Amino acid sequence: MKIGIDARFYGPKVGGGGLGRYVEQLVTQLQQIDTENRYILFLKPENFDDCIITNPNFEKRKVDIHWYTLKEQLQLGKIIDAEGLDLIHFPHWNVPCTIKTPFVVTIHDLILLEQPKSAHVTTRHPLIFWLKRLGHRFVLRHALKQAKHIISISEYTKLSTLNHFPYLEKESITVVYNGLTKLPPATDNTETPTIDTPYFLYVGNAYPHKNLITLLHAFSFFHQTHPEVNLVLAGRQDAFYERLKKEIEELDIPKDIVHFIMDPSDAALKTLYKNATLYLFPSLIEGFGLPPLEAMQEGTPVAAAESSCLPEILGDAARFFAPYDIEEIVLVMEELLENESQRKELIEKGFERIKRYSWKEMAKTIHAIYGKC
């Protein structure tokens, strides 16, 4: 077979920590396990050189088309069709509606359908946001209806997809869990932030569904009886984090207690995880939930919201709380700060839990799906 992969999201620097890592590892692992099929990888100029070819059956194509654009819908399909592929894998829902090549698609989450219709979920004009949601649903519906097969990264996302699109057959969706990448150790050149311990840590973006405002309210109460504990929020610098910084000023939390670490390297993240007393993940909606697994990998106990896929992915290796219950979140913070034996138990369970998630096994399962399409 001649198989294409829309690899424009390749790598965390371009595609982000979740989707970028997914595409990067899919390409990397397929090069190691598949010596029969031919592959064409469609990459952006920004990550074209980052994608290293180690298998002679793999070729690269440079495509200067950004995702979620009209150009993507009008031109990308023609470029892909011209390659004469038997199949192409789109690792996200943004499939060109004009595509004629048979395709499989990965659905990571349906956050745009599930999150509240609020002005807080966008930095754009409400009309622009409404048009964006309309376009998203149209493109997503086409992708799901026309796909030869659908890959979901959790049972929760599969169930959510079937609930929103009940005409789909259960057999058309296969759950394939993500893997977990070992973060590189810090070197002499690594810029590692120095934070006074103990501190609680959150890693990720500051989108509204991450529920960070609730976390901050809970921490403001917790701080009144535990002033020695710091809170670290690490993620990509954007308008949502700027908004969050302004909202913190209205809370009763000293500025020197909450630390923002923007755009940390993987090595810096590893250090932040390892030195944290507790990792907090209050998110309302997730498709998989990679950061708490990264925390477990570095021996940090995890407390997470009992929502969406998180109980499925984290199992008994995390302490759960109701996402909007501030009193319960404060109680969990206090218990895991003071109860060392409970932290140790979560750490040991975390080391076992992460063994379930392998990029190589993910690639093997997806490779088998290709063969059936």
Describe this structure in words.
This protein has helices at residues 12-15, 19-33, 70-81, 111-114, 126-146, 155-164, 212-225, 239-248, 266-275, 290-297, 310-314, 326-338, 340-353, 359-372; strands at 2-6, 38-43, 58-62, 87-90, 103-107, 149-152, 173-175, 199-203, 230-235, 258-262, 278-281, 302-305, 318-321. The protein is of the alpha/beta class and 373 residues long. The strands form 2 sheets. A 7-stranded parallel sheet has the order 3-2-1-4-5-6-7, with helices on both faces. Strands 10-9-8-11-12-13 form a 6-stranded parallel sheet, sandwiched between helices. Helix 10 links the parallel strand 11 and strand 12 (302-305). The termini are close together.
Q: Which keywords apply here?
A:
single chain, 373 residues, alpha/beta, Rossmann fold, 2 domains, seven-stranded parallel sheet, six-stranded parallel sheet, 14 helices
Short summary of the structure?
The protein has 373 residues and is α/β, with parallel strands linked by helices. The protein has 2 domains: 2-179 and 358-372, 3-Layer(aba) Sandwich (Rossmann fold); 199-356, Glycogen Phosphorylase B (Rossmann fold). It has 14 helices and 13 strands.
